[in-house]
Amino acid sequence: MVILKSIEGQSYVKVHLLFKVSISNTTYDIAFIQDYSAVPSSMLSEDDGNTGFHCLMLEDLPTSMRFISPEEFVCAAFIVKMDDNCINCYLLNNLVDNDMYFQLGQ
User: What is the mean pLDDT of the chain?
Assistant: First the structure.
């Protein structure tokens, strides 16, 4: 999972692919991503709220997947699957990794 800069603050995404594209002798880094959104409170148990972690789920709308520049990456984050009853639901632990983009380029 990666945290991105956005107009609203931060957004959370899953990175599916990282690749390079060459256009007119210029190479660009591209990432294919999928958005996470907050898990509705109706799907959360009391224990989920007590952890203090953000609860996120992968969005399944076609508009939730897109191409962006990895320069928008802020840092990496660690996620843990909540439980088997909530498909694609995760707890977020924001681990600071400010040079993730540079590590991916190596």
Answer: 81
pLDDT in tens, 67-87: 999 988 888 888 888 777 777
Q: Where are the domains of the chain?
A: 2-104
Rg (CA), the chain: 15
pTM of the model: 0.75
* Angstrom distances, CA of residue 30 to CA of 15, 33, 80: 10, 10, 26
With beta carbons less than 8 A apart as the criterion, state whether 94 and 76 touch: no
Q: Is 25 helix (H, G, I), strand (E, B) or coil?
A: coil
| C-alpha to C-alpha distance for 49 and 71, rounded to whole angstroms | 32
Q: Tokens 């390079």 correspond to what residue?
A: 20
Which residue's entry shows tokens 């996620």? 79
For residue 95, which of 84, 81, 80 has the smallest C-alpha distance?
80
